[in-house]
Amino acid sequence: MNPVNYLYLAALLFTIGATGVLIRRNAIVLFMCVELMLNACNLAFVTFSRMHGNLDGQIIAFFTMVVAAAEVVVGLAIIVSLFRTRHSASVDDASLMKL
Amino acid sequence: MENLIAPLIAAPLLGAAVLLVGGRRLDRVGHWIGTLLSTASFVFGLILFADLLGKGAEHRTLTQHLWTWIPVGGFQADVTFRLDQLSMTFVLLITGVGSLIHLYSVGYMEHDERRRRFFGYLNLFLAAMLLLVLADNYLLLYVGWEGVGLASYLLIGFWQHKPSAATAAKKAFLVNRVGDMGLSIAIMLMFTTFGSFAFGPVLSHTGDASEGKLTAIGLMLLLAACGKSAQVPLQSWLGDAMEGPTPVSALIHAATMVTAGVYLIVRSGAVFNAAPDAQLAVTVVGAVTLLFGAIVGCAKDDIKKALAGSTMSQIGYMVLAAGLGPIGYVFAIMHLVTHGFFKAGLFLGAGSVMHGMNDEVDMRRYGGLRKYMPVTFITFGLGYLAIIGFPGLSGFFSKDKIIEAAFAKGGTEGWILGGAALLGAAITAFYMTRVMLMTFFGEERWRNQPTRSPGAPSAEPAAETHGEHAEPHPHESPKVMTIPMIVLAVGSVFGGAFFSIGDRFLHWLEPVTGHSEGDSPLSAAAVTGATMVCLVIGVAIAWAQYGRKPVPAVAPRGSLLTRAARRDLLQDDFNHVVLVRGGEHLTRSLVYVDHTLVDGVVNGTAAGFGGLSGRLRRLQNGFARSYAVSMFGGAALLVAATLLMRAV
Amino acid sequence: MSFPLLTATAALPALGAVATAAVPAARRTAAKWLALLVSLATLALAVTVLVRFDPDGTRYQLTESHSWIKDFGVRYELGVDGIAVALIALTAVLIPFIILAGWHDADPLETGNRRWRPTQGFFALILAVEAMVIISFEATDVFLFYIFFEAMLIPMYFLIGGFGDRAHEHGEETAATQRSYAAVKFLLYNLVGGLLMLAAVIGLYVVAGNFSLQQIAEARASGSLHMATSTERWLFLGFFFAFAVKAPLWPLHTWLPNAMQESTAPVAVLITAVVDKVGTFAMLRFCLQLFPEASKWATPVILVLALISIVYGALLAVGQRDIKRLVAYASISHFGFIVMGIFAMTSQGQSGATLYMVNHGISTAALMLVAGFLISRRGSRLIADYGGVQKVAPVLAGTFLIGGLATLSLPGLAPFVSEFLVLVGTFTRYPVIGVIATFGIVLAALYVLVLYQRTMTGPVKPEVSAMPDLRVRELVVVAPLIVLLIFLGVYPKPVTDIVNPAVRQTMSDVHKTDPKPEVEAAK
């Protein structure tokens, strides 16, 4: 199969993720959308690696996965503690940092 | 022997330091310490005088170098004293009259709780004045020059609780500062012209310098002299300075400090001799002031202010003489010395009258006092005869010489200056006779009317013992006050004759100041005759106005000139409107400008940034998703820009 | 290696600051004594520097040099010339008096407050400022100088913003607002100046390749380091701007009245008598040595600005209603004289300017500290609230008058010598400017005497009738300053002897000689 199709898929996934980040309020969903975008990028990296016969893309994909995992740990912890104090997972409610 | 010059200054300086730092513990003996040290200075002066007399005329200059004061590059100022005939004359006058007035003040200030401080200031004055006349360079002279200004400030404002005294003191200092500015500029000019400002190098090289520079130096020195000697246009402070205690008026504002300007001009004779334009300016200032002061003196009802006008006028004579060049230098100094005697005597007499009259200064509330104060009457009377130039008394000799010298200037100038001097003599006779008649003759106007004390909480003794509205009981002053008056009266009677017989004074000063005889269009006898005529006219008019008719207790409205003269010929009003008001407006608008414009630019910039950040912070709305939009937008923009660049 | 005297002089107050800050809250008095002792020990070190300094020796003495940041050629280089020695001595002399005068300025409002720490902070900050000022005078490495020139702002900021006069006509809250306004204004002004200087410092490094003042100055003098005219001018402006803010020169002066008005009198003295001197000192040391041609190029403009400062500052002082603001504007006028003397480029002008820095420090300290004592008694800074003080507190009034007379440069007191030298130095080269500047002496008399008349003379106001005279501690502060004023007025030779050789070298840096008189009469 033409590897370019994987790129189209990655672009599609990224767009879905981005749209989700922009229009959803639930922090968990938002989080999942971010993951979706990250994974879309991973897919693109791997595809490029394949297309150019170069392993760099795959290495970076691994890096991204590790970072994403770390991010999930921290992010979920924040969301859980946020939920505990405010009984809501909506990101719009957490706007205390504005001036 | 020259090592005695420094102690001459150090004695009163020590007195000032001890009395001012010593504190209350010295209250009981302070006045005697002050008098003792001033007398010590006089004794040192006498010893030096004897020493000078023992030397030949060419060797009568002693110098004492103490230390290098300011050495920077070519600018070398030393603390060096120079005693020659000119400064010797001043030293004797200053310490002699000064010691007498110290003695007088012991009695005059007896009931003042701050007497110790008064003597401290007097000693400070003596030290500064001696420094002024003994300095060997202009910068050191400047130290004395401002030092006497400071002492004068402190003494005029001695009764500081009176706002009028504090204002008068401030005014005196400020007007003097304008003059001092002239002296500073003169010194700077000397430095750029001669590379020095010591008397020796400057005065012996005047021939090498351009006349323009010399004229500038001369005019600046004249400005300085105008300030210190109360000459037009800087004369306005002297009348107000009479707010000070009377001994101060006698010592500082009559006999010594105000004559410093004359000293400066005579000392700088070499500069003026080489700058005729500056000399002309000096004579004009002198002539104008001698008339100005005389006219003001005619209109004042305050005895001290009348005498102040007279002082101004007499110093005008001296300045006029000094402006005439070598013809006049010696006579300027001679008149200065005789004036020192009779004017100090007159002021002390006035003080004695005030002492016996509950501090009343208004001559319209005097009258007929000769019966009650015989000693004061006689000494004051002798001073009066001396100042109007009664034949044989000291003023006659010195003033007559100046009038002669003015005519000897030659040409139209000579006639104008001589005429002014003659006219001045007539007016002098008029106003002094007026003072004399109003104070000692006529009916006793102080009876049956309450006196008003000018300064309510005055420290002068009479005001405390008598109530404010009690009728005064004129009485003679104590011996400690009358003795100095008698000594000064003796000086006023015989001083002139002593100096003039055999031209003693001329021969004494000539080596320093130089002397030349002018060619007068009038003979000496003619001038003397004219002076006598003027004198008689002046006395006669005064007699007609104040002797024959009773003096009204309230001043009549008077003519336009009289009213102007009462207000010091409107000079104060001019100053007030132009300088004081103008200055107030200027400073007030500058304060406004500083606040709104200079500071406004800065605060405006700050406010601008504040406003901008206020706008910008609205972007921080707290919604995570709106941040996300801006991130995506930014990323999209970046990508677009990259593509665009690639395409180009 | 010999004992690093210069480092020690700067390090002692720095360590003292740390130690003072660490004193426990309850031992407030101990902290004060510690600070005083440290400042006195620093004075002893400064005197040692003065003694060890040989006026006829090499230009920079007691030098220390260590590598610091190798990659950028930054070195820890110290050295003093005559000008620096004089100013270090001034700083070390004034700090003990400032500490003593501010003895109670940072005490807790209610006695027995055992957790009150600002007292320690106050004295620690003063010592910190002293340390930084001294090292700024010593640094011969441009970068090193820059760091401390800027770092000085931090303690000063807290001193201005954190401590003010106790009593205030508008209540404590307004006072706090105005204080923080003044402190922020001070900080921002000086930061902007510092920022431009930083750019110029970097620029200098790019051009010269190192930061050493001596190396660059030598390279410039020998011609081995060439700078394009425009480069030199821009760099000069960057440096000069920072120093002109600090000095302060018209129209960059408006922070000073605010800062002096809102801070306590000892801090006000610290600002104007000590910290500001770094600005004028740096003009003399850095601007003239590093950029001689640009300095000459800018001279006319700078002289005019200085002249405006003199007249404008004096006129504004006349119009003030607040005692401290009046002194601040008077200082602006005096800084005009100092800058004028520096840029007149004559030996009289520059020696006079250096002397002026010293004398102005002492005279302002005398006047301002007495004014502070006065203000603390009545609780008001407004001139109109006083009157007749002379009658109730004659010693206070007398010392105030002497401070005032020094401010108006009365001959016989120290400032006269320096002011006259500056005027003469300017006059020999620029007669018109010299003459106009002379008007300043009349205006000075006006603002001093009006201040004295309104506060000290006249009928005694009821509010001041119970005013106590100077206390022993206050006399200990004022009397030595007055003695110094008189001594340096009568015998300034010890200072001029130290300063003159340094000025001669600066003059040769800018290739200028004194104008010759018209007639050589002195020989």
UniProtKB/TrEMBL annotation, chain A:
Protein's UniProt keywords contain Cell inner membrane: no
UniProt keyword list: Cell membrane, Membrane, NAD, Quinone, Translocase, Transmembrane, Transmembrane helix, Transport
Gene3D superfamilies, per the entry: 1.10.287.3510
One cellular-component annotation, GO: NADH dehydrogenase complex
Coiled-coil spans in chain: none
MF terms (GO), sorted A to Z: NADH dehydrogenase (quinone) (non-electrogenic) activity; quinone binding
Gene Ontology biological process terms from the UniProt entry: ATP synthesis coupled electron transport
Catalytic activity: a quinone + NADH + 5 H(+)(in) = a quinol + NAD(+) + 4 H(+)(out)
Subcellular location(s) of the protein: Cell membrane; Membrane
Topology of this chain in the membrane: Multi-pass membrane protein
One Pfam family per UniProt: Oxidored_q2
TM region(s), chain numbering: 6-23, 28-48, 60-83
Enzyme Commission number(s) from the entry: 7.1.1.-
Subunit structure: NDH-1 is composed of 14 different subunits. Subunits NuoA, H, J, K, L, M, N constitute the membrane sector of the complex.
Protein role: NDH-1 shuttles electrons from NADH, via FMN and iron-sulfur (Fe-S) centers, to quinones in the respiratory chain. The immediate electron acceptor for the enzyme in this species is believed to be a menaquinone. Couples the redox reaction to proton translocation (for every two electrons transferred, four hydrogen ions are translocated across the cytoplasmic membrane), and thus conserves the redox energy in a proton gradient.
Family: Belongs to the complex I subunit 4L family.
PANTHER family found in the cross-reference section: NADH DEHYDROGENASE SUBUNIT 4L-RELATED, NADH-UBIQUINONE OXIDOREDUCTASE SUBUNIT ND4L
HAMAP family linked: NDH1_NuoK
Name under which the protein is recorded: NADH-quinone oxidoreductase subunit K
Species assigned in the record: Streptomyces echinatus
Lineage: Bacteria, Bacillati, Actinomycetota, Actinomycetes, Kitasatosporales
UniProtKB/TrEMBL annotation, chain B:
Entry's transmembrane regions: 6-22, 29-50, 86-106, 118-135, 181-202, 214-234, 246-266, 278-299, 372-394, 414-437, 483-502, 522-544, 627-645
Primary location: membrane
Subcellular localization(s) per the UniProt record: Endomembrane system; Membrane
UniProt entry tagged with the keyword Ligase: no
GO cellular component: endomembrane system; membrane
NADH:quinone oxidoreductase/Mrp antiporter transmembrane domain mapped to chain residues: 135-417
Keyword set, alphabetical order: Membrane, Transmembrane, Transmembrane helix
An individual GO BP term: ATP synthesis coupled electron transport
Membrane topology: Multi-pass membrane protein
Protein name, entry field: NADH-quinone oxidoreductase subunit L
TrEMBL record, chain C:
Pfam families, A to Z: Proton_antipo_M
Domain NADH:quinone oxidoreductase/Mrp antiporter transmembrane: 139-443
GO CC list: endomembrane system; membrane
InterPro entries: NADH_Q_OxRdtase_chainM/4, NADH_UbQ_OxRdtase, ND/Mrp_TM
Membrane topology: Multi-pass membrane protein
Location in the cell: Endomembrane system; Membrane
GO molecular function: NADH dehydrogenase (ubiquinone) activity; NADH dehydrogenase activity; ubiquinone binding
Protein name: NADH-quinone oxidoreductase subunit M
GO BP terms in the entry: ATP synthesis coupled electron transport; electron transport coupled proton transport
Keyword annotations of the record: Membrane, Signal, Transmembrane, Transmembrane helix
Family: Belongs to the complex I subunit 4 family.
Organism: Streptomyces echinatus
Matches recorded under NCBIfam families: NDH_I_M, PRK05846.1-4
Transmembrane intervals: 31-51, 78-103, 123-149, 186-208, 234-255, 267-291, 297-319, 326-345, 357-375, 395-418, 430-452, 472-491
First and last residue of the signal peptide: 1-19
